[in-house]
Structure formats: structure tokens, C-alpha cells
Amino acid sequence: MTHKICKECGEINSGSARYCSNCNSSLLDVKKTEQSTEPINYSKVQSIAYSSDTVTIGQWVGIMIVLAIPFINIIALFVIAFGEFNESINNFGKASLILALVGIVIAILLRGCTGLL
């Protein structure tokens, strides 16, 4: 029996499959192979997939130090949110910008409605 092994996730698919049943990646450029008795080493595939998702404590400490510097933190948030970083770091930057914008809008509304601030 022939099968195709996905290059993205390592999933074993039927020989006639066009897309991976696990991650929907194209299998058009994958060669058909015969069923082997040797098991597939999924730990290598998983370590590649998760290595780029891990943000170290040192990276977070560095980000927090930069964000503690007045005026630099605003520029740093835009760089973190839209730069070529890990997806987790980008999402942290975008969430921080959204919260800052909400705070600014609330401050403007309070000042306009009550004269406070």
C-alpha cells in the first residue's frame, strides 16, 4: 500500500491524497512511498514546530525593561507588535497597543464629560 508523508506535520496520508488530513498542506509535490515497518520519529517534527513558539524568560525580561523606559516604550510597542518577532511577542505588542488606545479613549471621554483629569 502506498502513502504520502506530509512535509509540514509528518502525517501519513493515502497515496491518492492531494492535501494532508491533519494540516491541509498540499501533497502534490510529495512522492508516494511504500508502507514501511520503521516507525516515524514525530519528536523531530514536533521539536521544529514548537521551537519557534517558545519565548524565553530572558526575552520577556528584556521586553519588560525596554517597556519601562518612558517615551521609548511607545515606539517599542509598535516595533514589537508589527516587527519580525515570534507570534506570541507580536500578539503581546498588539494587545498592549489596544489597551493603551482604550485607556486614551476613556481618559478623553472622562475629561469631556466631567472635566476631570
UniProtKB/TrEMBL annotation:
Family matches, as SUPFAM superfamilies: Zn-binding ribosomal proteins (SSF57829)
A biological process from GO: translation
Residue intervals passing through the bilayer: 60-83, 95-112
Record bears the keyword Ion transport: no
Keywords: Membrane, Transmembrane, Transmembrane helix
InterPro entries, per the entry: Ribosomal_eL40_sf, Ribosomal_zn-bd
Protein name: Zinc-ribbon domain-containing protein
Species whose genome carries this gene: Vallitalea longa
